[in-house]
Automatic annotation (TrEMBL):
It comes from Pseudoneurospora amorphoporcata. Residues 1299-1343 form the MYND-type domain. It holds the Pfam family zf-MYND. InterPro entries: DUF4470 (IPR027974), Znf_MYND (IPR002893). Residues 1284-1294 have a biased composition (Pro residues). This is MYND-type domain-containing protein.
Length: 1351
């Protein structure tokens, strides 16, 4: 109800992802992982013979008798060590990482995460509205489990290679053996012993291993798909019943014919120029493939998108992908394969009950894989790739298939052995993502563990109530505990691109409360549909308002601005706005909500009404619907007199004793009115233009208040229960088939339900009419006119409101006994040792709606503390980060005082470690950290103390908010906080620092290494082309940075602040590192950062290789760093002397390095030492960024006893505070010293001397964010993006003549084509035989004088 809904007459399926796979745990800090061991290792451990076991027991007994005391002491030591390891967090298993996938689609993200972050224990909850997608995902996973030779699951088919799974999952047409394999597995999964009930499935091998269902309805819907696939028994055996076998065969034939017809219709749509989101004609390019090939997409210039485009069209033509050197040979081989492989892949077939389901025209098996390895030479590439003449298409296909095989093998390794708990748990739900999110919120807010119905529907096209009846969600005390309790809060929530279809506000309201209260918890979302010209405008309008304001209300810490109010409002209804107000009610401190809501409604009613189009009816007023949903959600009380005289009521309400303020109206659209609408909808959706259904109640009159619109509707299909009985309870009005798919063919009635204020129903109710119509949008313009149109009102069906045959009025929605439950934003429970409570007040500009400043009031509530503060105290604050302040209270001691810490608004400040008071001292001092949710201007922070009293004391901290557009003008704001690293308080054991804004590389050693020597010697890509590509790739400047990049130092000092200058200098150094390292090839190169005007070495970088980060589609410079500290000062002096006295090529400054890059000269064979002379601010910036570069590739554990991060961030939570002088202090902790692989580019003698002091780093180019600042674009690209489209190209010359039959351009003997049609002379042929072979077709279709000319 929170989102608009269409008729659902035609749905597009997305069984394959069209975006590259991402690692879902890339923002979760690394911790101790479960060692990845194969099942064979577990099996070998348990295969001890009885003799060996008995012998071992005898030996143990003898040892115990010989020295019993020694054994006891040893056992006690082991227990002490085990307890110490447990206290330090060094146990062998980590907690499950709970992940929620809404709109999960295929398995690419799950398999890639398991492969990329090996060893994580994952609990993944998957939700998708298309049941066939979940059915195929589970079938593939069960195939992988059964194919494991060590698994105890008995396969229902002969074991086949893992490479056979690629055509099973991605090809439309497969061999008979593969089709039979799918049918056999589907038959096994749909058997009564396996999936007859939810309990049976959970008791099976798959359920016990970790494949679970959230509710019984999801299992039922998926089982129907498996039963459909099980009919594809291509072996031709008869089951004994001849008639039944023939009937079954006929059903399968019809399903196949329907699939092939839908596939043909989709192929036709791909070349339709009228479609709104056209992806290009036959000669166009499918540019979405460039995203999958990043960052190497530009290495082959235009050839890359063209040959990927050829593979895309070949897949849609033949239903499979293959690669050949010659296009004609490829087409010939594909036709031969198609004749042989006549089997339709059951994995892409849906039963008749699913209605019209088509494959989306953008499907491509290659788009979900990272394809960069196919375009750049790597060290571990297959040897066959180096063969001469091997085309790029073959590389791409082999890479995709090999990658899929590796992902599948990683899943098999992660799957638990028999009798052991699986390392990966997956839960599946079929239904609406918004309803599923709110249902999980309802379970999380349930008190006493009693499951309650949240009154949401399973789907937007049906009236089946959503109840999570799985045993994993049963939290009632006294019930049997399950082995896999379902999570209700998640570390990672991925919403795919649901914001394009459901709206960002609706998605965040449904998912934000499910996010764990953890600094590393993250919500991901994608936007594939672009509504505005620039990405900054997209961000400004994502939440229908300023990101900083709306994001803060939603509990997110995003920042942005909104100069415009344009947004994709078609994704929202009045119920969406009411839900938003309900959600933020607990976060917004308002004196009187009733007065506030009345003021909001008054502003809405003051807006000028929209003018109707032409002679159409008045535009509907949606304010009554907004009032109804505000009342239902408990935000605003709708006053209503329940005792209405019966003679003033509608016929449907005359038997009611009491009438509620809001009621449900259900309109039954008769089946004979639907076929015309169905045809119009099919044509509109064929062009990619969806439409939405809404209702309206029209009253006599022509003013703007005579028509009330209702957009929050629920659509279903069914029949009235009894034609003679018009009024029934909400649970028994209609006979609704839960499996009935949406359809407008006239097979059943269309049921549309919506909530209406009772005052609208009773005011002129006997003369009012209710109608079902399409919402007016540009996509529904074709519905108004033309033959068979709906007219100006876009009316599907209209009837009087008192027509009790077609209009049913109930208290609640059909099949429901309550209102959909919507919860407020959850608040933390105050701890018992409460010391203070905080409230943050934001000042908002009236014209723009942006937050200009934040004021935090910290009110002390402890009586003992207030009595101490009453004697007088002073307060001061200092900056530790652009968001955090360290506040110090000082006074005379009269009682004990405790530290406080707070990181969230409107939450209590808990007590932490007691402040130490020196004995005999006359004053006390205590500190605590306070963090704001937005970046603040620390230069204008103001701290004010309130009145001093024994019962009430508070301090108030006010800071202006830094906007993205004015961040550059803040001179002292720390630009080094690009990659903040924090240590959440209270500290965990072991401590786990968290890096924001930079993804982790949990398995950095698995990332492919670019082989620079191979590129030097190869022709594709050429070395010059690779350098040009790397030069463009490392241009990481924003638009303003590029303007000042080449300016003189004096100009930069006058026009740029210290922070801007240091940020620009830092980006130049990173770019120089990449370019010089690539140019040095295998020669030794060292990067030295020193102060400007001095040669005192501050830090030294030893880089080892350039890697491809496949998860984020970027490059990573892998190496080590040594930073000058008090402990390493002497070692740095030794290195400084070695650099000066050695026989090396010295680049004395960054300018020399840039000159070398600009000229592109090859470096000689000498070792290279490149000096980066920079400012102290830039050096400080390096030191503040280094912890994030180190933490992202960490493979070790932090020691809480000696970790410098713990001692530095113990009171602030910030790893690198801004106010600490780091000249001689330790920037990086010593926990990771020496934990890095050997570097062949460093002399062995030097390496052994410095290895134990080095720390591993992974440096990536710091790309700008296009949502915040304008990126730099070359002039040619900027011209294309910002100027008007170029004029059409001049007409081409006549096409080159080819043989109409065989497409040859020459005769077999090399001569020109001279054979033509003897009648018209219009077609040319290479031989007489070709002319005869094509004569019948040519005469019928093309020849103007032919007897069979088509009219």
């Amino acid at each position: 109800m929170l989102t608009p809904v269409g008729t659902g007459v035609l749905r597009y399926s997305y069984p394959m992802g069209d975006t590259p796979a991402v690692c879902l745990t890339q923002d979760i800090p690394p911790s101790f992982r479960v060692p990845v061991r194969s099942r064979a290792h577990h099996e070998e451990e348990g295969q001890e013979t009885e003799a060996e076991e008995q012998k071992r027991e005898e030996q143990d007994g003898e040892e115990k008798e010989e020295d019993e005391n020694e054994g006891k002491e040893k056992k006690e030591k082991e227990n002490e060590k085990s307890q110490k390891d447990t206290d330090n967090g060094n146990n062998q298993e980590e907690d499950l990482i709970n992940i929620l996938l809404l709109g999960c689609g295929d398995l690419r993200k799950i398999l890639f995460t398991i492969h990329h972050d090996a060893g994580r224990r994952l609990d993944i909850t998957c939700c998708d509205n298309e049941r066939s997608i979940i059915a195929r995902n589970i079938l593939l996973l069960t195939l992988l489990i059964d194919m494991d030779s060590k698994s105890q699951t008995q396969p229902s088919f002969p074991l086949s290679p893992i490479h056979d799974l690629f055509p099973i999952y991605y090809h439309f047409y497969v061999t008979p053996r593969v089709a039979s394999l799918v049918a056999s597995q589907a038959r096994k999964l749909s058997s009564d012993a396996m999936s007859s009930s939810l309990q049976a499935w959970h008791a099976s091998t798959y359920g016990l291993g970790g494949l679970r269902f959230c509710d019984s309805h999801s299992l039922l819907r998926v089982r129907e798909i498996w039963q459909c696939w099980a009919r594809f028994n291509d072996d031709g055996d008869d089951d004994g019943d001849g008639d039944g076998h023939e009937t079954k065969k006929a059903v399968v034939t019809d399903i196949k014919a329907k699939f092939q017809a839908n596939l043909a219709a989709t192929r036709e749509m791909k070349t339709d120029d009228e479609r709104v989101d056209n992806t290009g004609g036959r000669d166009g390019l499918v540019y979405t493939a460039i995203r999958s090939a990043a960052p190497a997409a530009a290495l082959l210039d235009v050839d890359m998108p063209r040959h990927l485009n050829e593979l895309h069209w070949r897949f849609w033509k033949f239903g499979r992908i293959s690669s050949f050197h010659d296009t004609r040979a490829a087409n010939k081989a594909a036709r031969a394969d198609k004749k042989e492989d006549t089997r339709v892949n059951p994995m892409f077939v849906t039963p008749e009950s699913d209605g019209h389901v088509r494959m989306h025209w953008g499907l491509d098996p290659l788009l979900g894989f990272p394809l960069a390895e196919a375009y750049v030479r790597t060290e571990d590439e297959p040897e066959i790739w180096a063969a001469e003449g091997l085309n790029a298409q073959t590389k791409v296909l082999s890479l995709a298939m090999g990658t899929f095989a590796h992902w599948c093998q990683s899943f098999q390794q992660a799957w638990g052995a028999a009798g052991r708990r699986s390392g990966v748990v997956m839960r599946w739900f079929v239904g609406d993502a918004i309803a599923f999110g709110h249902s999980l919120q309802g379970l999380a807010n349930t008190r006493g563990g009693i499951r309650k119905n949240s009154h949401w529907y399973h789907s937007r096209h049906g009236f089946l109530s959503l109840v999570l009846d799985g045993e994993d969600y049963n939290m009632k005390p006294g019930t049997s505990r399950t082995s896999y309790p379902a999570p209700l809060s998640f570390m990672v929530i991925d919403t795919s691109n649901l914001t394009d279809d459901l709206g960002a506000l609706n998605v965040l309201i449904a998912t934000s409360p499910l996010l764990k209260n953890n600094a590393a918890a993250t919500i991901y979302t994608e936007m594939l549909t672009r509504y505005h010209r620039t990405y900054k405008q997209e961000a400004d309008n994502l939440l229908c308002g300023p990101l900083s304001t709306v994001g803060l209300l939603l509990g997110d810490m995003d920042d942005g601005g909104a100069p415009e109010r344009r947004s994709n409002h078609k994704l929202y209804t009045p119920a969406s706005f009411a839900a938003f107000l309900k959600f933020i009610k607990s976060r917004a401190q308002v004196d009187d909500w009733t007065v506030t809501i009345e003021a909001v409604l008054a502003l809405i009613e003051q807006e000028p009404p929209r003018q109707p189009h032409g002679d159409s009816e008045p535009v509907a007023d949606y304010t009554p619907e907004l009032r109804a949903w505000l009342h239902l959600f408990g935000v605003y009380k709708l006053e209503w007199n329940r005792l209405v005289p019966r003679w003033e009521r509608l016929w449907q309400l005359r038997t009611w004793k009491s009438i509620p303020p809001v009621m449900c109206v259900t309109v039954v659209v008769p089946q004979e009115a639907l076929p015309k609408v169905g045809r119009l909808e099919m044509e509109n959706l064929r062009l990619g233009r969806p439409s939405f259904v809404e209702c309206a109640i029209s009253k006599p009159g022509v003013d703007d208040k005579s028509c009330h619109g209702f957009a929050a509707v629920q659509v279903g299909y069914g029949w009235p229960q009894n034609s003679n009985t018009r009024i029934r309870g909400p649970g028994s009005i209609f006979i609704v088939d839960p499996a009935r798919a949406p359809g407008l063919e006239g097979e059943c009635h269309l049921l549309v339900s919506f909530m209406v204020p009772t005052s609208v129903l009773l005011r002129d109710g006997k003369t009012s009419t209710v109608k079902v119509q399409f919402r007016r949008t540009p996509s529904t313009a074709d519905y108004e006119g033309g033959q068979g149109g709906l007219g100006p009102g876009l009316t599907i069906y209209e009837t009087p409101l008192h027509n009790y045959d077609q209009v049913v009025i109930t208290q609640y929605m059909p099949k429901q006994r309550g209102i959909p439950t919507l919860h407020e934003f959850p608040t933390s429970v105050p701890p018992p040792d409460l010391q203070a409570r905080t409230t943050i007040v934001g000042s908002i500009a009236n014209t723009t709606g942006k937050i200009t400043s934040l004021a935090a009031r910290i009110r002390f509530t402890c009586p003992e503390l207030n009595s101490r503060l009453a004697n007088g105290y002073t307060a001061r604050c200092r900056v530790v980060s652009p968001c955090a302040f360290l506040i110090t209270l000082k006074g005379t001691p009269t009682a004990r005082l405790c530290n406080m810490n707070s990181t969230k608004s409107d939450e209590p400040v808990p007590r932490s470690i007691e402040a130490s008071i020196p004995q005999g001292g006359r004053t006390w001092e205590s500190t605590f950290t306070f963090s704001f949710p937005l970046l603040s201007d620390v230069t204008e922070a103001e701290l004010v103390t309130g009145p001093v009293s024994p019962a009430n004391n508070f301090i108030e901290l006010t800071v202006p908010v830094i906007r993205p557009e004015n961040f550059r003008r803040i001179a002292t704001a720390s630009p080094s906080w690009i990659y903040p690293a924090v240590l959440p308080l209270p500290l965990s054991s072991p401590p786990v620092p968290i890096s924001w804004s930079i993804p982790y590389l949990p398995c950095i050693d698995k990332l492919p290494v670019i082989d620079l020597e191979k590129i030097r010697k190869s022709s594709e890509p050429s070395w010059d082309g690779f350098k040009r590509w790397l030069d463009n790739y490392t241009r990481i400047y924003s638009d303003w940075e590029h303007r000042y990049m080449n300016a003189r130092a004096s100009v930069q000092e006058n026009l740029l602040s210290a922070g801007e200058s240091s940020c620009l200098h830092w980006k130049k150094m990173v770019r120089a590192m990449f370019m010089l390292f690539a140019g040095a090839a295998k020669r030794q190169i060292t990067f030295v950062v020193c102060r400007k005007g001095q040669m005192r070495v501050e830090m030294v970088f030893y880089m080892s290789c350039v890697r491809l980060d496949m998860a984020n589609r970027c490059l990573v410079l892998d190496g080590a760093v040594l930073v000058r500290t008090a402990e390493t000062s002497r070692l740095m002096d030794v290195l400084e002397k070695m650099f000066k006295d050695g026989d090396v090529l010295t680049l004395a400054s960054l300018a020399d390095a840039e000159a070398r890059i600009h000229v592109g000269a090859e470096l000689d064979t000498k070792p290279i030492v490149c000096y980066f002379q920079t400012t102290p601010d830039a050096i400080q910036m390096w030191k503040e960024i280094l912890p994030a570069y180190v933490e992202r590739c960490r493979t070790w554990e932090h020691d809480p006893e000696r970790c410098e991060y713990v001692h530095r961030a113990g009171e602030t939570g910030v790893v690198s505070p801004m106010d600490v002088d780091e000249d001689e202090s330790s920037v990086l902790c010593s926990c990771g010293n020496g934990q890095l692989p050997d570097n062949e580019r460093v002399p062995s003698k030097v390496w052994e001397m410095i290895k134990r002091r080095l720390v591993r780093v992974a440096i990536s180019p710091p790309f700008g964010c296009a949502f915040v600042e304008k990126p730099y674009l070359p002039e040619d690209i900027a011209t294309v993006n910002n100027q008007a489209p170029p004029p059409p190209p001049p007409p081409r010359g006549p096409p080159k003549a080819v043989c109409r039959n065989c497409k040859r351009e020459k005769r077999k003997d090399g001569g020109e084509l001279d054979q033509t049609c003897p009648v018209c002379g219009g077609m040319k042929y290479c031989s007489r035989n070709c002319q005869r072979a094509d004569s019948r077709r040519h005469k019928k279709e093309e020849c103007p004088r032919g007897k069979g000319k088509k009219k």
